[in-house]
């Protein structure tokens, strides 16, 4: 097992390194340049006083932000600083990248953890029940509901939910993480105000993600229920509850482990759209603003964070195979 873990970590490091270089190269080639935008602002501000021109400001800023280096040299310098624990300062937010990350990540953590718990709690029971009652009205209803959730675009679902629950019913606010009277509330009131603002984003993310896991659970449960050992268990006179919970469900978990290993990184990367639509100041929304502004340090940190999270999830999935299925042995 230890040799396997070392090999997986080594492979993950290579993937993270290659992925970071690709992202860095793409960011350097983007038409949106933070340096160019800042040069235009300073040139316009100094135009009335006869200050430096746009070209002069651009040259100064390129040198200050090390944008005169080629892609390979720039990436090598960035990687060298990262290995020292220095991710740089965010160009857009004017503060340390890690400090800004710590300020906003917890909004995303709460949003995505609650979504993940709801997703698992809803999808696995629905998928199992749909498989147990194959081709029934309940099965068809779950299938249609799952396909609807898969097909809905994020912006459309968010717009519908905001129109119904915020505009028509007035139960929630359209945007933001806190209300206008947040500072006047006590501690409990502030917590409930933030919780209220997280309802619609959580509902949006949950509905968008439950379709795939529900269908995946149903498909694998059907395969297990048609296996010979399930028929043997029923022939022995075991109750349906014992057959499902002790025999079928454990074997259904085996492929689910692989599928669910992608849920955490996909939720963090996918919540960027939802956080932007609801203007929740989580890591996704902040990273989107940084990318649009051409903020290279923060974009690189966010991208590497996603790469690391993905590799950790995949490695844990490989290890969990041996936990849920004793037949699996790592050699």
How would you concisely characterize the structure shown here?
By secondary structure, the protein is mainly α. The chain is 77% helix and 0% strand. It has 14 helices and no strands.
What class, by secondary structure content? mainly alpha
Strand content: under 5%
Low-confidence stretches: none
| Cα distance spanning the termini | 7 Å
* CATH fold-level name of the largest domain: MetI-like fold
Mean pLDDT: 82
The 3D shape can be described as globular
Largest sheet: none
Beta strands, count: 0
Order of helices and strands: HHHHHHHHHHHHHH
Total separate domains: 2
Please identify which CATH superfamily of the largest domain we are dealing with.
Answer: MetI-like
Helicity level, as a percent range? over 70%
The total of helices stands at: 14
Explain this structure.
- This protein is an all-alpha fold and 331 residues long.
- The protein folds into two domains: 82 residues; 220 residues, MetI-like (MetI-like fold, Orthogonal Bundle).
- Helices cover 77% and strands 0% of the residues.
- The chain has 14 helices and no strands.
- The chain is globular and about 90 Å long.
Output the keywords.
331 residues, 77% helix, mainly alpha, MetI-like fold, 2 domains, 14 helices, single chain
Q: Helices, strands, pairings?
A:
Layout: H1 2-29, H2 34-46, H3 54-64, H4 71-83, H5 97-132, H6 137-151, H7 154-168, H8 187-197, H9 199-225, H10 228-235, H11 240-260, H12 263-278, H13 283-293, H14 296-324
Helix pairs in contact: 1-14, 2-3, 5-6, 5-9, 5-12, 6-9, 7-9, 9-11, 9-12, 10-11, 11-14, 12-13, 12-14, 13-14
């Amino acid at each position: 097992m230890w040799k396997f873990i070392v090999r997986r970590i080594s492979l993950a490091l290579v993937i993270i390194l290659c992925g970071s270089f690709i992202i860095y190269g793409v960011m350097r080639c983007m038409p949106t340049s933070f340096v160019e935008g800042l040069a235009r602002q300073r040139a316009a501000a100094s135009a009335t006083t006869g200050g430096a021109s746009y070209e002069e400001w651009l040259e100064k800023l390129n040198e200050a932000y090390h944008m005169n280096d080629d892609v390979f040299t720039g990436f090598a310098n960035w990687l060298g600083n990262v290995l020292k624990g220095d991710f740089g300062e965010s160009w857009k937010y004017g503060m340390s990248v890690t400090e800004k990350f710590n300020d906003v990540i917890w909004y995303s953590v709460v949003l995505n953890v609650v979504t993940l718990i709801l997703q698992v709690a809803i999808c696995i029971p629905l998928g199992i029940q749909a498989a147990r009652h194959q081709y029934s009205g309940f099965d068809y209803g779950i299938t249609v509901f799952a396909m609807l959730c898969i097909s809905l675009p994020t912006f459309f679902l968010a717009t519908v939910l905001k129109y119904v629950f915020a505009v028509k019913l007035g139960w929630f606010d359209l945007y933001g993480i806190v209300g206008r009277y947040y500072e006047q509330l006590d501690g409990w009131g502030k917590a409930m105000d933030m919780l209220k603002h997280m309802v619609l984003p959580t509902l949006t993310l949950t509905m968008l993600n439950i379709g795939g896991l529900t269908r995946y659970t149903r498909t694998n449960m059907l395969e297990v229920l048609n296996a010979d050992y399930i028929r043997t268990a029923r022939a022995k006179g075991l109750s349906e509850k014992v057959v499902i919970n002790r025999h079928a469900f454990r074997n259904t978990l085996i492929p689910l482990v692989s599928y669910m290993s992608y849920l955490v990184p996909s939720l963090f990367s996918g919540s960027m759209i939802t956080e932007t639509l609801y203007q929740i100041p989580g890591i996704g929304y902040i990273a989107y603003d940084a990318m649009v502004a051409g903020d290279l340090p923060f974009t690189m940190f966010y991208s590497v964070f996603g790469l690391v999270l993905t590799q950790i999830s995949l490695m844990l999935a490989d290890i969990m195979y041996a936990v849920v299925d004793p037949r699996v042995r790592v050699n």
